[in-house]
Amino acid sequence: MEQLSVATIISKIENEELFHAVSEDYSFTIKIDDYVHYACAAIHDGHQFRKALWENCLHTEYERWYEEDPETKNMINSHPIVISGCDSRFEYDLNRAPEEAVFETAWGKQLWKQPLTDHQKNKSLNKHSNFYNVVHALVTKLEEKFGVCIVYDMHSYNWKRWDREVPTWNLGTSNVDNDRFGSDIELWRLSLSEITFPHDIISTSKINNTFQGNGYFLKYITNNFKNTLVLATEIAKIYCDEYDQILYPEVVSSVEKQLRKRLPEHAANFYKKYNL
């Protein structure tokens, strides 16, 4: 993996080069092993939190981890195109618009002892902007090359804090074209429902049950690219103990192994259907 500037990363994408890179400020990684008609993203996988902000932060390291999406990159990392965030959403949230990306409060609790300076905010927002410049270049290239594209937007959520039964998988689709892509969404929901887990964990899959797909990543791509479907795919945190901060690597491995087969199959079906 190379450390590259955003300009170099974009140039490599435009020239269809294959590469593995971390951005020069270490805010995100991207790998392209082949130019294919689908991409995977894990924008909340990151846990980094720049040291200059530590003393001013009221949230503990555990509280930050609890709201992040650990291991989501590992679930999709075998696919040809993967982009993922390295920084914690508590520094800036890639799934929120720039004006909302730097939190003042987070999940009902004040985040900072003292308000951030404009300089501190702008340093975070510059990372947010760089990420989306690369996303824009990537989806532009894939639509240009294939005509259509599908992006699997991987997230996780804390299922134990719900006071009702919630699904293992949730697809958020309220901001995509359901008239056009409804059958593709249903095929993905069905495929996810067939995934099996260790320890007799039950697999269920529903649409807009816990989350509706209101994230900025999905909206940004959907609003800027007419032939790209973003599938906001949430897995309940059955792969860890969300209260004791213990990861279950055998569950993560099981998900990765099954997505290695199911995800390209779904993407191939999508491409065959729309590449006219």
From TrEMBL:
Gene3D superfamilies: Zn-dependent exopeptidases. It comes from the Bacteria. Pfam families: FGase. This is N-formylglutamate amidohydrolase. It comes from Psychroserpens ponticola.
